[in-house]
Amino acid sequence: MSTLPPLRALQVFEAVGRCGGVAEAARRLGISAGAVSQQMKLLEDTLGLSLTQKEGKRLRLTTVGRRYHESCAAAFESLRVAHAEIERSKSVHNLNVSVLPSLLSKWLASRVMAWQAQYPDLNVFLDGTRTEPSSEGYDIDFRISYGDRVADVENAIELFRDIVVPVCSPQLILENTPLTVPADILAYPLISVDWLPKFVSPPSWHDWFEANEVDCTTLHNARHVFSLSSVAIQAAIDGHGFVLAQSSMICDDVAAGRLVIPFKVGLPLSWPYFLTWKKNAFDKPQCRNFHRWFLALAKEQQQVNDRLCKRVRSTGRDKFDLMPERD
Hints:
alpha/beta
């Protein structure tokens, strides 16, 4: 079994390659130039080849040295990130939340900032990613995710079930064919969202038209398909067509007049959103505060959906009829 070179020698080599020379690497590492040269020689002797070559007074990496340095640099960067995450997780003033990207950008970000204003000493780190964090990881206190794989996870609670409704820029309707019935949307460009293979995709345009008893045999495969709901929604805001968008993600845009819902009939997603947390999360007071606030926020979102939506039956499937909110 082969052994790795001494870690200190690898660290010095990484610094030499990053700084472009022995003197600067020595300054960055806080050691003498002689000590740097000694570690470089130890590494080359261990590997049995030269990693550097002199060009006049300058020291350059060989071709092999450059390739080796790329791998070493990536490894040390991973170590630095891991160490920073551990240090960050130990702080009583930090809160680390992992969220699906579109839900973060279109729903949570502005709301969590308003909540954070109550805690001026609290640092909130929001990580938008589709990758589920390790349950044993140090860096994440809470994860907001979606799908059947989350439902059976220990330390998980259901948040709310979203619906999708057709939305577009108000300017798009003003400049094109007027809308009187759902079938009129077929005359417009259709923007689609496809989450596969990571998650089950939201209801498609075929699903929506069938639920509204619209003959969609002339409907072709969508030309504009996005894996991120937020990008698809932005395309609709920019006037590129209609998109079936989640109600939670368009509340702010509809309120601001950037989007309109010409036909207030929606379909539910296959699964609700879930909140999960690491086992010792509630040892920190900021985690307990966030947990209480976020469950209340999710309940409000579900109430908004319930208040706007009346469940009806159509063609054998559930659909939602969005009703105007009453004072």
